[in-house]
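Hey,

Quick one before I head out. I ran the complex with zinc ion overnight. Inputs first:
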Amino acid sequence: MTAGAAGRHLQDLGGGCYAWLQPPGCWGFANSGLIVDGGQGLVVDTQNDMPMASAFHSAIQSMSGAPSVDVVVNTHGDGDHWNGNQLFDGATIIASEATLADIRGHWLDPSKIDAYAQGDSAFAEFMRWRLAVFAYDGWRPVHPNQTYTGQLPLDVGKISVELREFGPAHTSGDTIVWVPGAGVLYSGDLLFTASTPIMWGGPLSRCVQACDRILGLEPRTIVPGHGPIIGPEGIVPIRDYLAFVLDYAKTAYQQGKSPREAYRELDLSRWGDWPHLSRTYQNISLVYRELDPQNFKGDVRDTLNVVYGDDHGDWRSLPATSTG
Ligand SMILES: [Zn+2]
């Protein structure tokens, strides 16, 4: 066990697979993975900010028989999964073709947060929280330097690893990293555990299918993009939530309701104490955009003003630093 900041450590999942979890798993607190054999290492996602990425990198360096990280996989294009790529500069950094396009066009890389933090909106307030919590001094964009589509087999020492493109779903190009010999699967943000999933790219039906495809691989252990590790049974409530929201939003659209009406009328208490239930508004808006792109283009700032401004957003209770 290698301790990092705030008690974070590389959790041994067996079969050469490790998880680096980032509690509380909410906005910007994304997990990483590591696969090691024969002195070689493959990293899955590189953390959101510089202190988080450094802590993860140091933990790998501190392992007995520290591997050389030759390969990094970015599961998708959200910054909390690739902002730390520069710590692994020199490695082959792999992403799906669609993810590289997302990264090149990313609307929220660290260089843009300052501009978004101006003004009185809930969106701007959230961006000020991000600036206060996450540290990007010295950040520079390091993009994937190898892409694939569909499927890519890799070897880490003697461990067989498969990259499979399950996007478009959470974003336009989601990759899962599957280690069949160990039964370990790194899902990226196709799965959020212990908080409400939020899907950006869609279609939402593909997010439901992604859950089914993950279940179909019969993994023993799943490291989600955010939140605690789960077994396959942990996928079911996530799948059911997504399938419910999909059906609910379709019906609401057919009834002529606006996305806001649909959201306001939905009893969120059925999901108990999941944090950030206001993300449901984004998921509903995504379905409207799919059904009627002309009328529901879905301006991300308008949507996020609801997501962050709503009482169910509850991000204000999150930690005051990324490593505290
Ligand atoms: Zn994420």
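The mean pLDDT is 93.

Talk tomorrow,
K.
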